[in-house]
Structures are given as C-alpha cells and as structure tokens.
Amino acid sequence: MYKPTSITKLLGIETPIIQAGMVWVSGGKLAAAAANAGALGLIGAGSMKPDLLKHHIEKAQSLTTKPIGVNVPLLYKDVESQLKVALECGIRIFFTSAGSPKKYTTMLKDHGAIVVHVTSTPELALKCEQAGVDAVVAEGFEAGGHNGRDEITTLALIPQVVSAVKIPVIAAGGIATGSQIVAAMALGAQAVQMGSRFAVTKESSAHENFKKAIMTSGPGDTKLMMKNLVPVRLLKNKFAEEIAALEDRGADAEALEQLLGKGRAKSGMLEGDLERGELEIGQVSAMIRQDLTCKELMNQLSREVQATIKNLNALF
Predict the structure, then answer these.
(1) How far apart are CA 169 and CA 58, in angstroms?
(2) In this structure, are 225 and 91 located in the same domain?
(3) Segment 192-242, tens digit of pLDDT
C-alpha cells in the first residue's frame, strides 16, 4: 500500500521504513527479519569488532536476499576496518553517524556504495549534501542513543532540513506508529528510521530485562545526558543517576569516559543489568507495549498508516 518514494527507489526496498542500527541490539538476525518484512535492515556496527561484524553480515545474508545495510558510527577506532570488512562482504548501503560525512563518503561511493549520514541540524544536513551523501537521516533529539546537542525536536527539524537540502530526507526520532510515519512524511520526509520500536521485537538481541523495562517505562523515564562528551539518551536507572551526579559536579569529559569505559552499554542492553548498565532508548519507549516479530510490527504499522490517512481524509 506504500507508493514508491525517492528513498525506496534508492535503497531498493518495499516500504519507506528503515530499521535503525543500534549498539548491542541490531545484529544480523534483526536486520534480515526487518528486510524480509519490507524495511531496510541495518546491522549496528558500533558494538562490533570487524570479525564480529563480518559474522553478522554473513548471518543476515544467509537469512535474506533483500537489501541490508550497515550503520557505522565514525567515532570508534575500528571504523576503517569495519568499512573494509563490510565492502568485502558485498555491503553497498552504509548509514554513517557521529562524525564528519566527508571522511569516508568519497571512498565508499568509489566502491559503488550508497551513503546516508545521520544529522541533527539543517546546517549539518547541508554539509552532508556538500560532502556527496545520497540522503540524510534528520534525527530529532527525542531519539535514543547518540544524539544532537541542539535539542531540536523532530517536528521542527524535518521541515527545516527538507528546505535546506535537495537530497532525500529520512525522518528519525520519536517515531513508533503509523500515525507518526504519516506525520513525518507530511513534513516532507521520504522515509522514516525507527530504532526504539525495532529494539522491542522478537528478533532483536536486546535482553528481555531491557525489553521489559522499555515496555513498562513512562513518558519522563528517559533523559538526554553527557552533552559535554557524546550526547546520549538513556533510560533512567542507577547508572544514569551516577552520570547526572557527575555532571552536576561539573565533571569533565575524562571523568565521564572513565565511568563509561566499563562495558556499561553491553551489560545493560545485551546482558540485562538494569541497575548498573547503560540503557540507550528514545522517548517513544513510553508508547511501546508489545514485543512483536518484525513481520507483525510492519503489518501493524501498515494498518495504522491506512487508518490515519482515512481519518485525515474525513477531517479535510
């Protein structure tokens, strides 16, 4: 029921939905399931050494013949090795984030790859376009995980980015339902990227404790933190309280890095330590109450889109 958009044509997918790459959550199983359900599945390379990334790419390729991609945060030390491994495995769709779009875009495009960069402001989106990327993800600060410092909400960000660039725009941040997909595309987006909603699926590698914490969270249970280091939205717990206490005391980046450098994200999201672990998730977690398969989720979103359009037709 979705008509083709510039993004679905660019990526060769059926629906204008991208399953976001997430650390410790989006491995080969999730990416393949999302792809088989009609979305673009992304493997989150941020938590993977190159050999593990290769394993997950090959796993996804064994489970689907549809397009999959890799999300590569550019702030990690293994970036060049990750990109090399992904290219050698035949990946030709790259979503880059947390760094300059200029650094690897030309190299990737020389290998015939499609490059999409995640951005949080219209000014940065324009720089992405000038760097030669094929599209941008405009991510509002409602999103989970690494985030922009300017705290521009998705509703305000998308039309500004659409006006600033000529390349296609993918909306992200606070999107988990069909009505939110319609809203994002009404603002000019050609597709949406969803992270938190795909984190709570049967194929996600998120620990069951983490999923349950998401599904029982309330509207004010996340907070954007560590803006002096790398901004990240976290579900509130004892670890988040430690971060907040450090920030209240004026801690510098080194002190924050010392606290972070203890495998906190892995222990929280993958191993299920809800007290001491880092739990990256978006504000939209308060709307997520079901742990569905990717196919069930995509079918639900389709029904919600149709119902929203019907309601809008009745209003206008």
Answers:
(1) 29
(2) no
(3) 999 999 999 999 999 999 999 999 999 999 999 888 778 889 999 999 998
Beta-bridge partners for 68: 41
Output the CA–CA distances (angstroms, integers) from residue 278 to 23, 163, 173, 230, 307, in the order listed: 11, 36, 19, 14, 37
Interatomic CA distance for residues 60 and 63, integer angstroms: 5
Question: Which domain does 276 fall in, by range?
Answer: 208-284
Q: Which residue has the tokens 């999107």?
A: 175
Asked if residue 237 and residue 126 are part of one domain, the reply reads no
Q: Over 241-278, what HEC string results?
A: HHHHHHHHCCCCHHHHHHHHCCCHHHHHHHCCCCCCCC
State how far the Cα of 47 lies from the Cα of 264, in Å rounded to an integer. 12
Verify that 227 and 137 share a domain, yes or no. Answer: no
Q: Is the pLDDT of residue 47 over 90?
A: no
Domains in the chain, number: 2
